[in-house]
Amino acid sequence: MGNGTIYRRGHSWCVGFTVNGRRVRETVGPNKKVAQKALSLRMTQVLENRYFPPNRQLGRMPFKDFAQMYLEREGPLLKSIRTERNRVLAWAREFGSRPLGQIARAEIEDWRREKMMRCRPATINRDLSRLRRMFSLAVEWELLEESPMAGIRFLRENNARTRYLSLQECQRLIASCIAPHIRALVGVALHSGMRLGEILNLRWYDLDFASGFILVRDSKNGESRHVPMDATLSALFRAYPHRLGTDLVFSSSRGGRIVDVRTGFQNACKRAGLIDLHFHDLRHTFASQFVMAGGDLYILKEILGHKSITMTQRYAHLSPTYKIRAIDRMNTLWAGATPQASTSEVLPENSSVTPASQATHQDPPPAPQPRNDAGLSI
Questions:
Q1: Exposed/middle/buried for 44, CB within 10 Å: 0-12, 13-18, 19+?
Q2: From CA 263, how far away is CA 269, in angstroms rounded?
Q3: Among candidates 367, 340, 371, which has minimal Cα distance to 354?
Q4: What angle do helix axes 297-304 and 281-292 make, rounded to 10 degrees?
Q5: Which residues make Cβ contacts (< 8 Å) with residue 146, sequence separation at least 6?
């Protein structure tokens, strides 16, 4: 049949063939034999120059109008509507009123090369992933023949940050949080290692004060998990106001999900004199302090909710000071003396941070009493 093909998409059979160098795809129906007959007819029409596209408006919708349609249809399904909306609007500014059918693969590759000069690979890939989804739906909604994203390669990601806070920096950050909800969010992140989205999705019935665990229902990998809750974290939740009319632990003044955390967090970072700090780095901080306190990587893996231990090792970067102390202990060992390592060599004497390494799969970690002295209080 030459360059014509039939294939199945979902419950429907489709035909594909080439006309004047352009690939055309049509959905026929649920019957394979009907699809074979339709392809034969189309190939004959092409050979006899009698084929005309069924929709001459295909690909003519301005990209900005399509972006608005996309947000209206897909917006409610997006996990982080604000972040994804910003990505969609950025693409709308990039392509403006240009018809969908005029956007070529080459210019997307040019965009990628230009962004590589000033953006991280993960950032670029997230933007490309959103654009790929948009064009795929444009094809599915019969607004476009084929996606220009076909063949676009994503960048290899190597975005492991080594940014994490010392206990003294944690204290400064907490003290610099003016807004009560920002102070509480920072405290939860530092004591649990939870992602910001997981914290914002917490509901009061997810907190089991009796067993000392937090149930994370909506995690990044789609699986629920239990996160140990120490006494400091328990006291934080008990003291936090319970807004009427909503089950959310952290809610807006109207009872909905908090949208803007970045502004308050960045302002706190400035007051604390902390540069280049992202909220996600608080998760790094939890993991790093956990490992420096002698915590087991496999327990950390379950607390953080990683599917692979490789991801956990990415968070388990140790501080240079701790490495030096470890080498000093080895030197003492070779000299004939065996030192007794303890977390007091890592944590300040007055710190109230409880090593999360004491947590187990079944039991919550030992719970220290909250302190208001020089320790890490919330």
A1: exposed
A2: 10
A3: 367
A4: 150
A5: 23, 25, 139
For 21-42, the pLDDT digits (tens) are 778 888 887 888 888 988 998 8
Please state which of the four CATH numbers 2.60.40.420, 1.10.287.110, 3.30.1360.70, 1.10.443.10 is assigned to the domain occupying 167-318+350-358: 1.10.443.10
Instruction: For 38-81, write each residue's pLDDT tens digit.
Output: 899 888 888 877 766 655 557 888 999 999 988 888 876 666 66
Query: To the nearest 10°, the Cα dihedral for 187, 189, 192, 194?
Result: 160
Q: Where are the beta strands (DSSP E) in 101-186?
A: none
Task: Specify the 3-state DSSP secondary structure of 280.
Answer: coil
Domain range annotation of the chain: 5-47, 63-140, 167-318+350-358
- Structure-token pair, residue 178: 């003016």
Task: Note the pLDDT tens digit of each residue in 189-212.
Answer: 999 999 999 999 999 999 999 999
The domain defined by 63-140 folds into: DNA polymerase; domain 1 (1.10.150)
Q: Are 289 and 351 in contact (CB under 8 A)?
A: no
* Residue 201: both structure tokens together: 């999705």
**Count of all residues that appear for the chain in the document:** 378
Report DSSP state, residue 211: T
- Closest to 264 (Cα-Cα) out of 199, 201, 178, 184: 178
What does the alpha-carbon distance between residue 70 and residue 138 come to, in Å, rounded to a whole number? 9
